[in-house]
């Protein structure tokens, strides 16, 4: 089985690194493409032994499982570009937040009658094989196709199938989750430094504390509330600290964060569905490419770019 | 020395109350409800008849003389207001013998103080009840003084379990119990009132809302006590994904309810400690 990545950024790098480290895939069976060869991840991928190309079409041709590892606004461009090369054998896996299966199937159906589409939401710790991944299968993806993806993603962490309507919530929780954790760890380390620890040690200990706690929770039958209680001796240090967290509304901040990320994901999806994207969301190189290929698109005079309207826009 | 072994059978026990206020009234109702001690074996003293009428109605004996209570009882509950107690102890001290068991309900008065003001052989215990003892759903903690032994502790526990939860604790927990449960009852009343107000805002008549609020608290507490599950787990069980409960809980978390409640318990506990020092 060979795997391709359209896009050679953080996500492609993380997944490639994870798959090769897990031994489920040899590096030479992986291809990644991007027009931008200056990305730091590009050299990383090359060093791994992954085949790198600037041609998305080449990636499609040499893959069975094709990951769309580009930012959500770019997805429509990519589908338009590689659509003609998608065959019945391909499993197209989109990792883009807020991009629905139906929008992908709609685009591809102009080229291929029954495209196999799977939508997936993963997160960056796949790079160390502790990812959290969910996936939902599209209309023409079989049970085996889902299982194949699940096998791949399970090699780099936890993976389970869900209904598509839960994916935005997953984005808010475990998609963005590592960022919340990094923020917490940075602050915890600051606390350690304030109380006299050298920075490196503070970071190391903070990270280990969160890692250990997460591991305990995953391996325990107990509720996190119970595990918390087990750490809090009466009148002790921990309960004093927890009181501070509660006073600051720690819990509600985290609930707010998950909610905000989920809601934003839905907003972006709605923007994409209306095919209204601001040029700022698209990198300049790609924008130039779009202008070259579709002279009828007028970007300068409107605040929004309308993507793939069959009729040309006259402003 | 060995004193005549007074029967510890509850039915033969003579129980006295110095002070006949609300808390004493709650305990005696609990005792009577449980049928542990006949009313005729109970005597209470108070300066005026104001409180004593209710005791007589229950079938208890009453007096205006504190010494009489001590003479006629084996188990003596001290239930006066804190500033009255030193005077009362001075008054009854001559009548206190080694057969007596003295149990103080008086807030903020330590075992050390009690033992200082009573004869050195006195069996002293200190108890902190809470208001719902009145309806036999109280929470009480007690500690023993130097001369009180396992028998006295067991007697107290068996008599008062009729009023609710009754646990022996180190004396240092008594102020915490005040903050948690003594005052805690008021926090619950506040919460119940707020729940009902929310319902009234949404269109429910007040009286119905209040009854439902109370029943909700009762039911939730009953489930906690009977299942022994962690409250966080029970809370999770009620929260269906994306449902009404989790939306409401988010509001509570935004309001830092947990921290506020912790602050309340801390404030009451600290105040109890400060008052004890006065």
Automatic annotation (TrEMBL), chain A:
Pathway in which the depicted protein is active: Amino-acid biosynthesis; L-proline biosynthesis; L-proline from L-glutamate 5-semialdehyde: step 1/1
Chain sites annotated for binding NADPH: 56
Annotated Pfam families: F420_oxidored, P5CR_dimer
Main localisation: mitochondrion
Signal peptide extent: 1-26
Keyword presence, Acetylation: yes
Segments forming domain Pyrroline-5-carboxylate reductase catalytic N-terminal: 3-98
Residues that bind NADP(+): 6-11, 34, 69-72, 95-97
UniProt keyword annotations, A-Z: Acetylation, Amino-acid biosynthesis, Mitochondrion, NADP, Oxidoreductase, Phosphoprotein, Proline biosynthesis, Signal
GO terms for biological process, alphabetical: cellular response to oxidative stress; L-proline biosynthetic process
GO molecular function, one term: pyrroline-5-carboxylate reductase activity
Catalysed reactions listed for this entry: L-proline + NADP(+) = (S)-1-pyrroline-5-carboxylate + NADPH + 2 H(+); L-proline + NAD(+) = (S)-1-pyrroline-5-carboxylate + NADH + 2 H(+)
Keyword set includes Plastid: no
Its EC number(s): 1.5.1.2
GO CC terms: mitochondrion
Compartmental location: Mitochondrion
InterPro entries: 6-PGluconate_DH-like_C_sf, NAD(P)-bd_dom_sf, P5C_Rdtase_cat_N, P5CR-like_CS, P5CR_dimer, Pyrroline-COOH_reductase
Top EC group: oxidoreductase
Domain Pyrroline-5-carboxylate reductase dimerisation: 164-268
Family: Belongs to the pyrroline-5-carboxylate reductase family.
Name used for this protein in its record: Pyrroline-5-carboxylate reductase
Gene: Pycr2
TrEMBL record, chain B:
Positions with a binding annotation for NADPH: 66
Compartment(s) of residence: Cytoplasm
Chief place of localization: cytoplasm
A GO term, aspect molecular function: pyrroline-5-carboxylate reductase activity
Pathway info: Amino-acid biosynthesis; L-proline biosynthesis; L-proline from L-glutamate 5-semialdehyde: step 1/1
Alphabetized UniProt keyword annotations: Amino-acid biosynthesis, Cytoplasm, NADP, Oxidoreductase, Proline biosynthesis
Any one GO biological process: L-proline biosynthetic process
GO CC annotation, single: cytoplasm
First-tier enzyme category under EC: oxidoreductase
Residues in Pyrroline-5-carboxylate reductase catalytic N-terminal domain copies: 15-108
The UniProt record lists the keyword Iron-sulfur: no
Binding-site list for NADP(+): 79-82
Quaternary assembly: Homodecamer; composed of 5 homodimers.
Similarity comment text for this entry: Belongs to the pyrroline-5-carboxylate reductase family.
Function: Oxidoreductase that catalyzes the last step in proline biosynthesis, which corresponds to the reduction of pyrroline-5-carboxylate (P5C) to L-proline using NAD(P)H. Proline is synthesized from either glutamate or ornithine; both are converted to P5C, and then to proline via pyrroline-5-carboxylate reductases (PYCRs). PYCR3 is exclusively linked to the biosynthesis of proline from ornithine.
Record-given protein name: Pyrroline-5-carboxylate reductase
Organism: Callaeas wilsoni (North Island kokako)
Gene: Pycr3
């Amino acid at each position: 089985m060979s795997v391709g990545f359209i896009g050679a950024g953080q996500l492609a790098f993380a997944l490639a690194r994870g798959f090769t480290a897990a031994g489920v895939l040899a590096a030479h069976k992986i291809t990644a493409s991007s027009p931008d060869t200056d990305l730091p991840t590009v050299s990383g991928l090359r060093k791994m032994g992954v085949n790198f190309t600037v041609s998305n079409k080449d990636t499609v041709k040499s893959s069975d499982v094709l990951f769309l590892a580009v930012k959500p606004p770019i997805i429509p461009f990519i589908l338009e570009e590689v659509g003609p090369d998608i065959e019945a054998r391909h499993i197209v896996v989109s990792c883009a937040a807020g991009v629905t299966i139906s929008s992908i199937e709609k685009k591809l159906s102009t080229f291929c009658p029954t495209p196999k589409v799977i939508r997936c939401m993963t997160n960056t710790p796949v790079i160390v094989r502790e990812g959290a991944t969910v996936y939902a299968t599209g209309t023409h993806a079989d049970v085996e196709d889902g299982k194949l993806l699940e096998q791949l993603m399970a090699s780099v962490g936890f993976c389970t199938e869900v209904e598509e309507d839960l994916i935005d919530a997953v984005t808010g929780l475990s998609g963005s989750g590592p960022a919340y954790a990094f923020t917490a760890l940075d602050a915890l380390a600051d606390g350690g430094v304030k109380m006299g620890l050298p920075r490196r040690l503070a970071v190391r200990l903070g990270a280990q504390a969160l890692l250990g706690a997460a591991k305990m929770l995953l391996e325990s039958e107990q509720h996190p509330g119970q595990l918390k209680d087990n750490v809090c001796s009466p009148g002790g240090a921990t309960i004093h600290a927890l009181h501070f967290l509660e006073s600051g509304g720690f819990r509600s901040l985290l609930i707010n964060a998950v909610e905000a990320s989920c809601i934003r994901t839905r907003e972006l999806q709605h923007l994409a569905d209306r095919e209204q994207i601001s040029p700022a969301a698209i990198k300049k190189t790609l924008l130039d490419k779009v202008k070259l290929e579709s002279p009828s698109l007028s970007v300068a005079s409107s605040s929004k770019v309308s993507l793939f309207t069959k009729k040309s826009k006259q402003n | 020395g060995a004193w005549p072994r007074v029967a510890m059978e509850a039915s033969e026990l003579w129980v006295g109350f110095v002070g006949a206020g609300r808390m004493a009234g709650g305990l005696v109702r609990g005792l009577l409800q449980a049928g542990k001690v006949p009313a005729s074996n109970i005597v209470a003293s108070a300066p005026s008849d104001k409180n004593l009428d209710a005791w007589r109605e229950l079938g208890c004996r009453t007096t205006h003389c504190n010494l009489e209570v001590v003479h006629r009882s084996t188990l003596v509950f001290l239930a006066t207001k804190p500033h009255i107690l030193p005077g009362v102890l001075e008054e009854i001290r001559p009548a206190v013998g080694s057969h007596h068991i003295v149990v103080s309900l008086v807030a903020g008065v330590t075992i050390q103080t009690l033992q200082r003001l009573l004869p050195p052989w006195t069996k002293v215990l200190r108890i902190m009840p809470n208001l719902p003892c009145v309806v036999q759903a109280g929470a009480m903690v007690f500690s023993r003084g130097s001369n009180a032994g396992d028998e006295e502790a067991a007697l107290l526990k068996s008599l008062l379990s009729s009023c609710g939860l009754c646990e022996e604790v180190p004396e240092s927990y008594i102020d915490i119990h005040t903050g948690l449960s003594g005052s805690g009852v008021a926090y619950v009343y506040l919460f119940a009132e707020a729940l009902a107000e929310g319902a009234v805002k949404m269109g429910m008549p007040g009286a119905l809302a209040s009854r439902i609020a109370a029943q909700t608290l009762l039911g939730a507490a009953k489930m906690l006590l009977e299942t022994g599950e962690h409250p966080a787990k029970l809370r999770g069980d009620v929260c269906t994904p994306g449902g009404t409960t989790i939306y409401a809980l988010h509001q509570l978390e935004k309001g830092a309810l947990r921290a506020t409640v912790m602050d309340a318990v801390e404030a009451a506990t600290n105040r109890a400690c400060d008052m004890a020092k006065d």
